[in-house]
Design a protein that fits this description.
single chain, 148 residues, 72% helix, globular
């Protein structure tokens, strides 16, 4: 499926077919990469779901025995869901919330400012995109013909 591109607005109108044809493929690659990287980030936490109790409590999330496994599940299973495009919007929204907390953690708690928070800001923006956009036709949401 091609995405409509206004050739009249392009400096090089001949590239319009390339842009139109690659739109969903590139979006799918971004979703897969974001999901898989979230899974790899959450892998250590899912192996030890109570390992972040002290960290989440230091951020004011009590009880840590509730929030630490929730963090682990959000990163690990949420990453899988985003990657395969199943329940894409709620999984991406949950990931975005986690990443906004890491913005606060790195930027304020650890006093790293923008330099420490910028990666989390970028990741939060990526997951915001998928929370709003959802999965495209290359997702399980599309195959199920149901989405949030």
């Amino acid at each position: 499926m091609s995405h409509p591109i206004d050739r009249n607005r392009l400096i090089v109108p001949q590239v319009a077919p390339l842009y139109g044809a690659s739109f969903e493929a590139v979006e799918t690659v971004l979703r897969l990469v974001a999901g898989v990287l979230l899974v790899t980030h959450g892998y250590g936490k899912i192996i030890n779901p109570f390992g972040a109790v002290g960290m989440v409590e230091s951020l004011g999330f009590y009880p840590g025995v509730f929030w630490s496994p929730l963090l682990a599940a959000t990163e690990f299973f949420g990453g899988i869901l985003v990657a395969i495009g199943l329940f894409t919007r709620p999984a991406a929204f949950a990931a975005m919330i986690v990443l906004l907390v890491t913005v606060y953690f790195h930027g304020v708690v650890q006093a790293q400012g923008l330099a420490g928070a910028e990666k989390s800001i970028l990741w939060a923006a990526i997951f915001l995109f998928f929370a709003v956009r959802g999965g495209n036709r290359h997702s399980l949401d599309a195959r199920l013909r149901k989405t949030f």
